[in-house]
Design a protein that fits this description.
By secondary structure, the protein is an all-alpha fold. It contains four helices and no strands. It has one domain.
Length: 86
């Protein structure tokens, strides 16, 4: 389908399902066959989910240590994947 850099450029839209169904299906196939892109997508999805837990509005208390660690690990994983591809 596309190369990894094209997949990475579409990951946010893919995770939000803002792409046409056939494009999402092609990305699904790529992620299933490319361990690096699959890991990047999982890490980005985890980061997005953690961020959604802490939307602006209701002011939560301090971020629990385990959530902070999970966010940090997800972000570091994405950054590491990106560094290794450059």
């Amino acid at each position: 389908m596309r190369d990894c850099s094209q997949i990475e450029a579409m990951l946010s839209e893919y995770l939000d399902r803002d792409l046409p169904p056939e494009t999402c299906a092609a990305i699904d196939r790529h992620l299933a066959s490319c361990p690096a892109c699959g890991q990047t997508a999982r890490a980005l999805r985890a980061t997005v989910e953690l961020c959604r837990d802490y939307r602006a509005g209701a002011r939560p208390g301090p971020l629990p240590a385990e959530k902070h660690a999970a966010m940090k690990q997800a972000l570091q994983s994405v950054l590491s994947d990106l560094r290794h591809r450059s």
